[in-house]
Specification:
398 residues, alpha/beta, Purple Acid Phosphatase, chain A, domain 2, six-stranded mixed sheet, 20 strands, globular
């Protein structure tokens, strides 16, 4: 007998791309995943490895989208294991969820829940699936009840978490042989990042050593938005499922996918992992040419509905260029041209935001530079900075 696990991650519900809402694309993904893929594949377990939401405090309609998806998955009878990522608020995501285990909805958002497995029983073996929430080394290490007493480094906290899992496995009363799965959200050394991931630590010291997962049969990773695998150590197959839709133009060539992992009594091999391509409502494209050529090409372009990044090979551009491009490509998100050897980049304000305050102007500048929305902590820092400047200016005026 085999057990089958669907592995996905990094939904980032509520995310915007250069000001344009991605809710339509995310809803289409969820409909396909829940209504088409799950019934067709009949998995024994679904795993979502963190970053359910794009922000710690998601909008109400985004929470409702997720809750509706959970209800539909639960009605299918397929259990689901969900961990928190660095974009999620682990407290909010895990609020009022501990009683949901009996209904097949298994949230793992607290360090104290690391040793709480989801057990999927099979004829020849049982699967013990554990979830490690995203662990922030600077905040989650120490001697507190919900902390790890190790060095404040990503490798150390993950190593401590996996050791807790292995200790729990040793203490379990098992009637069948056991295979293990760990869902985690981290940047494992050797992974390839995209432009849309938020760094886990300033200065780039955010990598964790793959060796910490030695002895685990399958590691369902989240955080990196491109689907990929790492060799890891013996008896550890480490895979990133990637995000279901692209979140930056650096991902325009990604094939977005969900992973179907087939587990046998002998474990997991790369050959037993199937990549299932996710249908996309539109592609991401980059065009570089003169304005005349691009406008001429657009007349017969069959894919005008794609998300577009256009680089005009011009030293100067006439007024109205954006309107001309936008008329041909309604999902134009970014355009630029070369002026004196430097690219001047424009990210249209498509969400109706009125940039009439220093806070909104700074937030939009942050989005243009980083290609992601500022976190709640970043917004607080921007607000504090703007308030300090306003206060200083008022003193000068006096």
């Amino acid at each position: 007998m085999t057990l089958r696990v669907l592995h996905t991650s990094d939904w980032h519900l509520g995310r915007k791309l250069h000001g344009e809402s991605l809710s339509e694309a995310q809803e289409k993904f969820l409909d396909w995943f829940i209504d088409d893929l799950v019934p067709a594949e009949e998995p024994h377990l679904i795993v979502v490895s963190g970053d359910i939401y794009d922000r710690g405090i998601p909008p109400t309609e985004v929470i409702e989208m997720f809750e509706d998806s959970l209800a539909r998955i639960q009605s299918s009878g397929t259990p689901i294991l969900i961990t928190s990522g660095n974009h999620d608020s682990s407290v909010r995501l895990g609020s009022n969820t501990r009683w949901l285990d009996r209904f097949g909805l298994h949230f793992r958002t607290r360090i104290s829940e690391i040793t709480k497995p989801v057990v999927v029983e099979g004829k020849d073996f049982d699967l013990y699936a554990y979830g490690i929430p995203y662990i922030e080394p600077d905040a989650d290490t120490g001697t507190g009840e919900n902390q790890l007493d190790v060095a404040a480094e990503h490798t150390d906290v993950l190593d401590a978490a996996v050791k807790k899992i292995k200790s729990n496995l040793d203490s379990q009363k098992k009637t069948n042989p056991v295979r293990t799965l760990v869902a985690s959200h981290a940047f494992v050394t050797g992974g390839i990042a995209a432009d849309s991931e938020r760094p886990l630590k300033i200065g780039g010291a955010d990598n964790a050593d793959a060796a910490v997962f030695s002895g685990i049969d399958y590691v369902a990773m989240g955080h990196l938005h491109g689907a990929q695998y790492l060799e890891g150590m013996k008896q550890a197959t480490i895979r990133y499922s990637g995000s279901p839709i692209p979140f930056s133009f650096s991902e325009r060539d990604h094939e977005k996918q969900v992973l179907m992992v087939t587990i046998t009594k002998d474990g997991v091999s790369h050959e037993s992992i199937e990549s299932i391509t996710i249908p996309q409502i539109r592609r991401m494209r980059y065009l570089e040419d003169t304005l005349d050529n691009i406008l001429r090409f657009a007349e017969s372009d069959p894919n005008k509905d794609d998300w577009m990044h256009i680089n005009l090979k011009e030293q100067t551009v006439a007024p109205g260029v954006y309107d001309a491009l936008k008329a041909r490509y309604p999902h134009l998100l970014k355009w630029e041209y070369n002026r004196d050897g430097r690219n001047t980049i424009y990210v249209p304000n498509q969400d109706g935001m009125k940039l009439n305050s220093p806070l909104e102007i700074t937030k939009r500048f942050y989005e243009r530079v980083t290609e992601e929305q500022p976190s709640d902590q970043t917004i607080t820092l921007i607000e504090d900075c703007c308030n300090s400047v306003n206060s200083a200016l008022s003193q000068v005026k006096k």
